[in-house]
Amino acid sequence: MTGPELEILLVLRGVDATRLVQSNSGHNCPWKPVPFEYDAIRAQAQQTLIDYLDNEIALGITFTRCAVNSSDAGHKEHFSEAKDNATKAAQTVRRFMVLVEDGKIREEIDRRLAELEWIIAAL
Q: Domain check: are 61 and 118 in the same one?
């Protein structure tokens, strides 16, 4: 069995807490488990998610400003498009914010999202 085949087999059998690397130690097993740093990876994934949601809220606010400017200039089609884009940003945040593990951060995102949704509703 080749290295990639062995890796696939172990993953399918539930060995997901380790990755395999080839060993040159000369013993019978050419593979040895090397632990992943799951806590660090999970923390990095959470921070990336939080940054993404923050950026989506900021993008939504930018779209509301574009909508106001378009409305003031009499561009109804651009107004509608900007408002729709702001709504999509808010929907995206609503969809993914449940994945934020820290309750305080999730509450802050929810507060900012409520402000964005209020601005969209006021357009």
A: yes
What confidence tens digit (pLDDT) does each residue in 13-69 have? 554 434 544 444 555 555 555 566 778 888 889 999 999 999 999 999 999 999 999
Structurally, the chain folds into a number of domains equal to 2
Same domain, 51 and 84: yes
3-class secondary structure, 86 = helix
Domain housing 80: 39-122
53 and 105 assigned to the same domain: yes
Which residues are within 8 A (CB) of 118 and not within 5 positions of it... i.e. 6 or more apart? Answer: none
Contacts (Cβ under 8 Å, ≥6 apart) of 19:
7, 33, 34, 36
The H-assigned helical ranges of 1-123 are 3-12, 38-72, 76-96, 103-122
Residue 39's pLDDT is 80
In angstroms, the CA 117 to CA 123 distance is: 10
